[in-house]
Amino acid sequence: MIGLLWFVLAVLTSPFKSKLRLEAENTVLRHQVIVLRRRLHGRVRLTSHDRWFFIQLYRWFPSILQAFTIIRPETLLRWHRAGFLCYWRWKSRPLGGRPPIDMELRVLIRRMSVENPLWGAPRIHGELLKLGFEVAQSSVAKYMVKRRQPPGQGWRTFLCNHAPDIAAMDLFVVPTIGFDLLYAFIIVRLDRRDLVWINVTANPTAEWVARQITEAFPWDEAPHYLIRDRDRIYGTVVTRRLRAMGIRDKPIAPASPWQNGFAERLIGSIRRECLDHIIVLSEAHLCRILKSYADYYNNFRTHRSLNKDAPVSRPVQRTGSIKSHAILGGLHHHYARA
Predict the structure, then answer these.
(1) Rounded Cα gap, residues 263 and 245, in angstroms
(2) Range of 80's domain?
């Protein structure tokens, strides 16, 4: 009954429609019949030609939406928008111009901008020109890393720039075979992790510590800053000696040994790699052992933080036979070519 009513309404309104509009609606209806006859089973399958045909008719006669029965109007509008997007993508395709740069050069530009946060496009462009790359400065600016914050150095860069002027000192206790306590005093530079000074005493005093600092930094080799903990042994004698040598005293916060991490890590290495395997007989014995370990630590022991190099840089030996030299009675060995 509803279909008959729609048919009667269509017949009554047909005289008021233009001839082209009627022909367009008839064309849509006929093409839908062709699509339905082409279906074998299941849902209706529309080809790209069918979609293009319906979209073109819709562009010319938008009123044909009322004649669709096998598809919804929303589907036709979605096809039209997708076709419009493809058309303008084709319309906006590059027609020649400057060729794209190689991926290797893009990676190099990003690497330079990451490693040098203070460099802009002109500086990176100048470096690339010196490396033999022919590239425009605008291309360099395009492939640089975009930063949300103003460029600045990180903590690693800041500490590396100040490490040559900083040293740290600390005391640690070593028991002897007779359960007496000896005190070892160390000073380490933060730059190359080199063990500047090591000595032993049974009765540490402020005067003794001040004398060790003087002997560790003769002439003009003193650092600008010296990190220490808040042990009472560092009295006014020590602070006056530091001030007289032009060293700024930097005590850490109370109960915060991690703030003197370089010295604490060195003490841990001395215990794990030396003292945990030796029974100390006397003060002279401990002093001799620590002096031998300090020589091994500075000249031969490799460090991950130094790119597997020793504090006193070791040359790479490529020729000659390999010889082994025992250190601390064979606890460690040094290998070299002869």
Answers:
(1) 21
(2) 19-89
